[in-house]
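To whoever is on call:

I kicked off a structure prediction for a single chain this morning and the downstream step that reads the tokens threw a length-mismatch warning. I double-checked the sequence; it's 606 residues and nothing unusual in it as far as I can see. Pasting both halves so you can look.
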Amino acid sequence: MNNLIIGLSGHIDHGKTSFIKAINNYDGDIRSDEKARGMTIDISFSNVILGDNHISFIDVPGHEKLVKNMISGAFGIDILVFIVAADDGIMEQSIEHLNIAKLLGIKEVLVFVSKSDLATKERIKEVKQEIIKLIKKLDLNLIEISEFSIHKAELIKNAKEILSKLKNNKKESGKFFRYYIDRVFSKKGFGSIVTGTILSGQINKNDKILVCDLGKETIIKNLQNHDKEVENATIAQRIALNLTIPKENLKKGMLLCKKGILRGFDRVDCVIFPIQKIINNQNAVFFIGSKKINATINILEENDTRILATLKLDEVIFSTFKERFILRDNMKTIGGGMILNPITDPMKKAQKIQYLKYLYDDDFKNAFKILIDAHKCGFGLLQSLQRFNLTSSECVEIAKNIDDIFCDKDSLVIYNLESKNIVKNTILNLIKKNKNAIFSANSISNELKWSSPNFNKEVIKELESKGIIKKSAPNLYISTKSNIDDVFSYAKEEILKILQDGGMTPIAPYNIYDDLNIDRKLGDDIFKNLTKTKKVVRLSHNIFILTTELNKIMQKARDIIKTQGYIDIASFKKHFNISRKYIIAYLDYLDNYGDIKKEDNKRMLR
């Protein structure tokens, strides 16, 4: 079965809702105020099976003030059915609807001249010629133009035949699930239900998905497509989802996606195709998916056909590369376009303009070069689906063809030569400060959070080849000027000295490692050895003390108990002027002795 989403568009009272009713007996005017006013206010959805096509109809309003609902319905449409009444012909709102369709990337248009029973053949011919001329001007693809009347059975039959033969030339499924909520309601016995169109990817019953705007995950309890429960759904399907989040927390315009794919930003860079004059810093209403928010247009560069701009938004959005949007001002559509850079990047204006041009042309290799230059500490590929609609593997393949960079395929980060110099200088400063510093690729990453171990290894290889550093143990390095023979023995002795100097208040292991400039894993291995050989006792997470020192403290604590009958924090503090964290650690250690008991936070002999 071929799934098609068909949007109906046209001027008020030109017969869109009547068209649907004639095709499948569905009355789109579902609200009482719609019945009373004789027009469709909110987006109306219905479906029908014609031949091999399972068609979802989206009836969008023709009233100018409600074009925002038309935009909400247009996202995800495969084919636009354009209804023009034979008596009225093309109206202003009809033209606006076609402009919106073009701006949203809807190319295929099927036209029906409605109310053909109310016009002469000459008038119908005239209207058809006007429509053909308009569609050609907008560079849209006219599938067919046919007459229609709800009062003529043969024309209804003909319309059904045309619809049954339509083909969906839609893109592939897409690389991840995306779904804008366009309706929210609750149903007794089910709870919260949302409806929308799957824009990409697929979803399964019991999947866990993220409501991006809330930052909360929810379970898909049930899915429904064309009034039937289904186990899964894919791109271009109208789907109702039964969620575990309360209805009150959900709103039209919220985006559903799998966790970890999209990040939200209140500034995005884009290309705008204006249909009215747009000026710098102009305020507009921004429509994306079923979301509507205010925006300020900051023009970066413009020519006769397009504008490169940054949109400053009132809210955070979770947009994707080349996602379509519409801009309106003063009740009119002023343009639309595509998101080119959904992720905010630190760039100079000239650099950003060139970057956006590369993205517009899908020239990712040169776009990567600009990002590599802009991100002095490397740029990550974890958001590549959102940023470029490319998988990280596809990005890695592109990076292979770029000179003078390092691409870490494990950490998914690309670095430039300037980044390498930062790592190199960090190591050189370390061994200059302490010729006996012991470091590894991992310990450099602890110092430079942005630098991956694999990237550090490349720098270490260079310094080793130049005779500046040498390997002293597996994965460990020291300066060639160091006098260390065995790094484990050296570091062990230094650690014991520091513990000895610390006495009752030894400093934490990580502070010792920093003071000695030694690798953390090496230090952890030494502490494990010292505790195993009982030279050191671990009192708490980060308090390690020499066994000889601990024995002295325990003996003094026992003497206090014998003298006053007990020991607690106050009496311990009186005899040992040390901080509370150490006192508590020593008191807790007393509990390990069988002849000591604890009562009301006091330790005493049994």
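Update from on-call: the warning came from a stale cache, not from the record. Cleared it. Sanity check on the structure: The longest helix spans residues 547-564.
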